[in-house]
Amino acid sequence: MAQLADLNTDQSFVAKVLQTERLTPADTEEVREIQLEVQEPAFRCSVDQSFGVLINLTDDFGPRRHHRLYSVADVPSKTNGKQRLTMLVKRCNYVDEFSGELQHGVASNYLCDREAGDTINITGPHHLPFEVPADTSANIIMIGMGTGIAPFRSFVKHIYNYGPEWTGKIRLFYGARSGLELLYLNDKDGDLTNYYDRDTFEAFAALSPRPAFDDPIDLDKAIEERAGEILEMLKYTNTYVYVAGYAKVKDMLDQAFAKIMGSGEKWAVRKAELVAGNKWAEILY
């Protein structure tokens, strides 16, 4: 997969903010859903692609461009010849480990501060490491945390609303610190629950036991509780595993799958097969 710095940013497109809505309560980390309308009719982005946000900055190092990629969080649509995109953005702030000063994420704060009617510059479309399989009998295990739910939400909606009948199993595991931060699976916005009546789809939530203390999310436990079914799915050559979310989940997932497979060695072999067959892919940050 190409590195961010290798992507072409020479051509950009103007996108207007149609709507911005905070999805999480005020006393939790801010996550916003932002709807954009790309002003140039030539721009096209699908659920299998991402797009970049390009920000022009001037700081102590002089003028520079800040570029960040985002997955589409809904099936792209077209109105009056212009494409509409939906994205999820978490406002990120962190303490610099060297200076001890509070730093603000450039792209996330810029986007969370936009209002309806504002315009931003986007690039792309760009490649995603995973895609909706052409084989409708394929099994897909989707594992997302936080805003990592974005591509999987668009995948699920595309599969069940715009494609032929899907006969393979689709299992979504989604982790969040609390039920209030379960995007599209909460009482206010249960968009993904609309597909619970589909025979091939199931979703499982995993939460932190003590969200106020930033304890790890029990994503591994949620996966291990479905060990029998996951082991059965992993026996098939047309099973895909897609992961999107925090980088710290990587080791936890390897341990969970090793338990399911019976040993770390067996999981290492099966994961290598998935990777070699382009059936394991991840977006980690």
Protein described:
- This protein has 6 helices and 14 strands.
- Helix content is 21%, strand content 35%.
- The radius of gyration is 19 Å and the shape is globular.
- It folds into 2 domains: 4-126, Elongation Factor Tu (Ef-tu), domain 3 (Beta Barrel); 139-284, Rossmann fold (3-Layer(aba) Sandwich), CATH 3.40.50.80.
- The mean pLDDT is 87.
- The chain has helices at 106-112, 149-161, 219-224, 227-234, 249-261, 264-276; strands spanning 13-22, 31-38, 49-59, 62-71, 77-79, 82-90, 93-95, 102-104, 119-127, 139-145, 170-176, 201-207, 239-245, 280-284.
- It is of the alpha/beta class.
Terminal CA distance reads 14 Å
Largest sheet: 7 strands, antiparallel
Helix content: 10-25%
Q: For the residues shown, what is the average pLDDT?
A: 87
Q: Please, how many domains?
A: 2
Unreliable segments of 5+ consecutive residues = none
* Rg measurement, Å: 19 Å
CATH class categorisation of the largest domain: Alpha Beta
- Spatial order of the strands in the main sheet? 4-3-9-1-2-6-5
**Discrete helix count:** 6
Q: Would you kindly provide a brief summary of this structure?
A:
The protein has helices spanning 106-112, 149-161, 219-224, 227-234, 249-261, 264-276, and strands at residues 13-22, 31-38, 49-59, 62-71, 77-79, 82-90, 93-95, 102-104, 119-127, 139-145, 170-176, 201-207, 239-245, 280-284. It contains six helices and 14 strands. Helix content is 21%, strand content 35%.
